[in-house]
């Protein structure tokens, strides 16, 4: 949100707002930034007499742009991570989940609950998706799709005479018409600046009609009817692009990495009968005070109810030259067969960037969260139960699993996951992150000259 002497600009997501923000900041010296993706309801009281300026966008086009933007490498958005099941879902599934986010189905309720668990309580200082827990808590509407709900939240519907809404499709012309109507003296300067400004944060995709089947097209026609009717939008299926741009199916750095080897489930079993007794014996020989020496539970709030033994770990979550702690040598012989098996399963061309034991006491939980750092998103996260009970459940993408002793299983930590130990005994898992060389090399072009990490 930007306040000027003559108007307030409210930035509706994926409607050219970054471009408009830039030219306003350049051409209107008395502009004041109030907040990032702030809705009209958060405009300060002393500016409430000012007209609101914003933009709408054809909903079919909006969803494609939103999806393509969030598929870009290194772009991570909590809303996208949840609705795409950690990036694993297709365009149709992801957009369907988003369109239906407000309805009363069990799946939509789970997606909302997941978002509520991970979104912030305030927009202050928030440069992310621009939503809070309360936003999603109050989004309960079987008839309204996300895009229309978001537009109403950002720009309001109660006093449409105070709102001056242009169309994204005519961004420059409509903005200048609105400014001239409002008597903004810098309109000609802004018009000149817009003619020389490239669109910011645009995403690469073909005409939106290439990405829809009839079912998804009709779902949006029905549930986004508010925007479609108000701005006279329609689904343009006649326009033919000279070249169809395929939206990447992953937003990893080189487009090739797939968690769970592209399996559609949230858990990928590597083995179900691994003998963990040697590891358990070595674990029993570790002095109890070692469990209190890790700072992991203090550094990461979501792990505040756990204790850890760090074998390979770095606080900066690096993807190069991981630090081998002294405890690694204590377990090296017992770990070796397991690490060889894991490495062989994924093709051997990679290495282990994290290994640790994590203990969760009886009656404690690890709250729902999503992992966002590069190395956590570009690794295979493997869990091996060492000590557990029948009342321990790990939830991934809303799917619960009571992992048994002897299971070696990858989980999709790119989507919402949590743990609940409802039993009367502690739970200890060995957690192992294995990363392929190809992805890490793509991230760091200097990898060929870097010191080699220990590989298995």
Structure description:
- This protein has 456 residues and is of the alpha+beta class.
- It folds into two domains: 2-230, Rossmann fold (3-Layer(aba) Sandwich), CATH 3.40.50; 259-449, Jelly Rolls, CATH 2.60.120.330.
- It is built from 16 helices and 15 strands.
- The strands form three sheets. Strands 6-13-10-15-8-7 form a six-stranded antiparallel beta sheet. The chain has a five-stranded mixed beta sheet with strand order 3-1-2-4-5. Strands 9-14-11-12 form a four-stranded antiparallel beta sheet.
- Helix 12 runs antiparallel to helix 14 (326-345).
- The longest helix has 20 residues, at 326-345.
- The model is unreliable at 445-456 (pLDDT under 50).
Key attributes of the depicted protein:
alpha+beta; Jelly Rolls; 456 residues; 32% helix; Rossmann fold
Molecular shape = elongated
The proportion of strand residues reads 15-25%
CATH architecture assignment of the largest domain: 3-Layer(aba) Sandwich
Report the sheet with the most strands, covering strand number, pairing sense and barrel closure.
Answer: 6 strands, antiparallel
End-to-end span in angstroms?
52 Å
Strand neighbour order, sheet with most strands: 6-13-10-15-8-7
Unreliable segments of 5+ consecutive residues: 445-456
Work out the radius of gyration. 25 Å
**How many helical elements?**
16
Task: Estimate the helix proportion, in percent.
Answer: 25-40%
Task: Indicate the structural class.
Answer: alpha+beta
* Overall residue-averaged pLDDT value: 89
Q: How many β-strand runs? A: 15
CATH class of the largest domain: Alpha Beta
**CATH topology descriptor of the largest domain:** Rossmann fold
């Amino acid at each position: 949100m930007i306040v000027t002497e003559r108007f307030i600009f409210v930035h509706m997501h994926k409607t050219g707002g970054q471009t408009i923000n830039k030219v306003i900041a350049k051409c209107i010296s008395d502009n004041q930034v109030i907040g990032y993706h702030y809705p009209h309801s958060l405009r300060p009281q002393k500016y409430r007499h000012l007209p609101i300026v914003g933009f709408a966008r054809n909903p079919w086009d909006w969803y494609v742009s939103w999806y393509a933007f969030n598929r870009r490498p290194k772009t991570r958005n909590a809303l996208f991570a949840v609705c795409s099941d950690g990036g694993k879902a297709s365009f149709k599934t992801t957009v369907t989940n988003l369109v239906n986010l407000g309805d009363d189905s069990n799946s939509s309720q789970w997606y909302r609950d997941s978002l509520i668990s991970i979104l912030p309580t305030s927009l202050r200082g928030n440069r992310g998706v621009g939503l809070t827990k309360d936003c999603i808590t109050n989004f309960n509407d079987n008839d309204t799709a996300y895009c229309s709900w978001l537009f109403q939240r950002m720009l309001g519907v109660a006093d449409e005479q105070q709102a001056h809404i242009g169309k994204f499709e005519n961004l420059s012309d409509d903005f200048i018409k609105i400014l001239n109507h409002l008597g903004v003296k810098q309109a000609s300067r802004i018009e000149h600046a817009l003619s020389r400004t490239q669109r910011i944060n645009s995403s690469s995709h073909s005409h939106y009609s290439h990405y829809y089947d009839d079912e998804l097209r009709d779902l949006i026609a029905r549930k986004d009817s508010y925007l479609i009717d108000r701005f006279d939008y329609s689904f343009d299926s006649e326009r033919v692009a000279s070249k169809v741009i395929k939206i990447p199916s992953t937003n990893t750095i080189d487009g090739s990495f797939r968690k769970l080897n592209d399996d559609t489930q949230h858990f990928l079993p590597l083995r179900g009968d691994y003998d963990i007794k040697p590891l358990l014996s070595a674990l029993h020989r570790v002095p109890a005070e070692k469990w209190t020496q890790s700072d992991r539970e203090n550094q990461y709030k979501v792990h505040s109810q756990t204790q850890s033994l760090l074998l390979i770990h770095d606080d900066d979550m690096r993807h190069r030259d991981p630090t081998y702690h002294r405890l690694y040598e204590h377990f090296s012989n017992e770990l070796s067969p397991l690490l060889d098996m894991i490495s062989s399963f994924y093709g051997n061309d990679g290495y282990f960037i994290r290994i640790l034991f994590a203990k969760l006491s009886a009656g404690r939980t690890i709250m729902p969260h999503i992992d966002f750092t590069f190395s956590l998103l570009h690794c295979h996260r493997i869990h091996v139960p060492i000590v557990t009970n029948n009342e321990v459940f790990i939830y991934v993408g809303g799917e619960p699993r009571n992992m048994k002793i002897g299971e070696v299983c990858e989980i999709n930590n790119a989507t919402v996951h949590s743990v609940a130990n409802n039993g009367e005994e502690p739970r200890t898992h060995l957690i192992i992150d294995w990363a392929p060389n190809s992805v890490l090399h793509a991230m760091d072009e200097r990898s060929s000259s870097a010191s080699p990490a220990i590989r298995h």
